[in-house]
Design a protein that fits this description.
The complex is a heterodimer of chains A (270) and B (343). Chain A has helices at residues 8-16, 20-35, 39-57, 59-68, 84-96, 102-119, 140-149, 168-171, 182-186, 192-198, 205-214, 262-269; strands at residues 129-131, 156-159, 175-176, 202-203, 219-223, 227-228, 237-243, 246-251. With 270 residues, chain A is an alpha/beta fold. The longest helix of chain A has 19 residues, at 39-57. Helices cover 71% and strands 1% of the residues of chain B. Classes of the chains: A alpha/beta (270), B mainly alpha (343). Chains A and B meet through helix 1, helix 2, helix 3, helix 5 and helix 6 of A and helix 4, strand 1, helix 5, helix 8 and helix 9 of B. Strand 1 (129-131) of chain A pairs antiparallel with strand 1 (119-121) of chain B, so a sheet runs across the interface.
Chain lengths: 270, 343
């Protein structure tokens, strides 16, 4: 999602990054506009692209979608309708075909490929990627934590830091949460008291433990980079283990076994 | 169990789409009867069929199990019917020319698939896509349990995603293949959609490079793959979506929906006879696009509207444009539904 208030030109700038490929696309459009003889190819690759671009920056059109339809954050999606790679690729081979000498053609193609490699940005350098260590492609520490949480085949409630909030319920539905990823997407909801505590740099352990106990949270997962102003052990939670950058605490007062043993547990604790 | 899972994956992602896609072979020109085209066409039909069934089952408050039985029966019936009626057309399938360019193109495809399997993606939308699929699979009900927290859904915020049945399609495939939705989506579907995307790109190459220029087809497809892999100019680009969150609906629309529209527009302008099949395909594609993402309601409609007008003007045949317009009726219906009921 993009921040609102950007105009279409700013969105194009953000979308294009270092603008190499967008420039290549623009030059390809101009070239094909002039030299493409096939009317259908010209219509689909050139006229359609130019129309889409014109519509994208046309004030009434952008106003309708960004303001009236409330799509300001996703207005960039219209740029997906520009077949940039297809048009650029077609223009490159259209130009190459003009060279009759095979060696010149091969050399020109090699230069184009080198330009792409230099001007482009390698996809797998994206910080969004991480080395997957398990079949689920979910961070291993989350998988390990969830496995250790589920001591019996039943649901357990847990709170997680924001950075791994999206993962537990992709792995198992036996973990429930007082707040989930919607908290990051749609803002604070009705359970934001725990979340408000969790996002602080220095955690108020007593407050957090009390809130979690009140909401019957079995497990609390804390990022080790946070400073704690107390010990969870003093407030009915004990350390289960450290999982990478995270520590997991478990309630010492709640029932963890399978539900058929609940009556027996209740009797022992009365 | 693993063997059964593999067999089910082959059935639902290869055999059924291929059999359904055979229906197109008798209408397509010989050069378009490629395995990729048939498989892609069949998959679009499969997804469109699932979309219709899902909306009906959601409206009737039925369970995922019931939907699974119904969808499997319908899909297998359609696949068998298509296979029987078009069996003789299998010999019309054209295999690609295995030259050096094609080998390079295959290597690019393999590279994309390997990277898809080696690297996970840190993306919050998975909390909805995979979370929703897993929650539906476990609870057997649609949108009754909050996929983010596990509690009963109290707000209607999910309605804006309801038309996009992709997470439920993952849940359905997960149920029939016995594979965890995260593994299925991240690894199997991700790889499968990358193959389909590259197949569509190759078919576009067939349309763009005809006659003596056909030697450029494989190189063009390879070059497009190269551009895709080197197109991380921002996290917003189409290539970023295609290669990172391949299994998510938005990315499916970018990887399959948009290139397929380009392909159909080129075919509409090129082919002289038997064009009616393209209009039928556009109807399937509109349903499948909405199954991928509700944003396709306006993105797809605008692209098809403008594109078909451009082609009609190019071939000086406005009837072509007026024949395409009715194929947008499902989109108009979805738009009304979204506006009055879901928003």
């Amino acid at each position: 999602m993009l921040e609102s208030g950007l105009n279409p030109f700013e969105i194009i700038k953000l979308y294009s990054g270092n603008t190499t490929f967008m420039l290549m696309f623009a030059l390809s459009l101009i070239y094909l506009w002039v030299f493409e003889k096939d009317r259908v190819k010209k219509a689909v690759l050139v006229i359609l692209s130019v129309t889409m671009l014109v519509l994208f920056v046309f004030p009434l059109f952008s106003h309708f979608f960004m303001d009236k339809m409330d799509e300001a954050g996703t207005y960039y999606r219209f740029l997906w309708l520009l077949p940039t790679s297809i048009v650029s690729g077609y223009a490159v081979f259209h130009i190459l075909d003009r060279f009759k000498n095979k060696f010149v053609r091969t050399g020109a193609f090699a230069i184009v490929v080198i330009c792409v490699l230099i001007g482009g940005v390698f996809m797998y350098e994206s910080p969004a990627f991480f080395d997957s260590t398990n079949a689920y492609q979910i961070p291993q520490c989350v998988v390990d934590m969830c496995d250790d949480m589920m001591v019996a085949e039943r649901e357990y409630e847990a709170v997680f830091p924001d950075e791994i909030l999206q993962y537990p319920r992709q792995y198992t539905t036996y973990i429930t949460m007082p707040y989930g990823f919607e908290m990051l997407q749609f803002g604070h909801g009705q359970n934001d008291d725990i979340h408000s505590e969790m996002v602080k740099d220095t955690l108020n352990v007593q407050m957090l433990a009390l809130l979690c106990e009140g909401k019957h949270v079995h497990y609390i997962v804390i990022n080790n980079n946070k400073t704690l102003d107390g010990r969870f052990e003093d407030y009915n939670y004990e350390l289960v283990g450290v999982y990478g950058d995270y520590s997991m605490y478990k309630s010492t007062t709640m029932f963890f076994d399978s539900w058929d043993k609940f009556e027996e547990w209740k009797k022992n604790n009365e | 169990m693993i063997i059964l899972s593999i067999l089910q994956i082959i059935l639902y992602l290869l055999v059924i789409p291929f059999s359904m896609g055979l229906a197109f072979t008798r209408f397509f020109d010989e050069k378009h009867n490629t395995i990729g085209n048939i498989l892609t066409g069949g998959f679009i039909m499969e997804l469109a069929t699932f979309q219709v069934l899902f909306l009906a089952f959601y409206r009737l408050h039925r369970t995922l199990t019931e939907l699974t039985w119904c969808a499997s029966t319908v899909l297998i019936f359609l696949a068998v019917l298509s296979l029987i009626t078009n069996f003789m057309t299998i010999k019309k399938i054209k295999l690609p020319k295995f030259d050096l360019g094609f080998i390079v193109f295959v290597l690019f495809t393999v590279y994309m698939i390997v990277m898809r399997n080696l690297q996970g993606v840190n993306d919050g939308d998975d909390a909805f896509v995979i979370g929703n699929a897993l929650t539906t699979l476990t609870n057997d009900v649609f949108y009754k349990v909050d996929y983010y927290t596990g509690f009963t859904i109290t707000s209607k915020s999910y309605l804006r995603h309801l038309l996009a049945s992709n997470p439920l399609f993952i849940a359905y495939l997960s149920k029939v293949t016995f594979v965890h939705p995260a593994i299925l989506a991240h690894r199997i579907l991700g790889s499968f959609y990358l193959c389909l995307h590259n197949a569509v790109i190759y078919n576009i190459a067939i349309l763009l490079f005809t006659k003596e220029k056909d030697k450029y087809r494989s190189l063009f497809a390879s070059f497009v793959s190269l551009l895709t892999i080197w197109d991380f100019h921002s996290y917003l680009t189409d290539s970023t979506f295609i290669l990172s969150r391949t299994w998510q609906g938005k990315s499916m629309f970018v990887a399959l929906g948009i290139p397929l529209v380009i392909m159909i527009l080129l075919m509409l302008g090129e082919c002289e006879g038997k064009k009616n099949i393209f209009y039928v395909f556009l109807i399937f594609l509109s349903f499948a696009s909405v199954a991928m993402t509700p944003a396709s309601i306006y993105l797809y409609s605008i692209m098809v509207f403008v594109g078909s007008f451009c082609v009609a003007v190019a071939v000086k045949k406005m009837s072509l444009f007026f024949k395409v317009l009715p194929t947008l009726l499902p989109m108009a219906g979805f738009a009304l539904l979204y506006y009055f009921y879901f928003s």
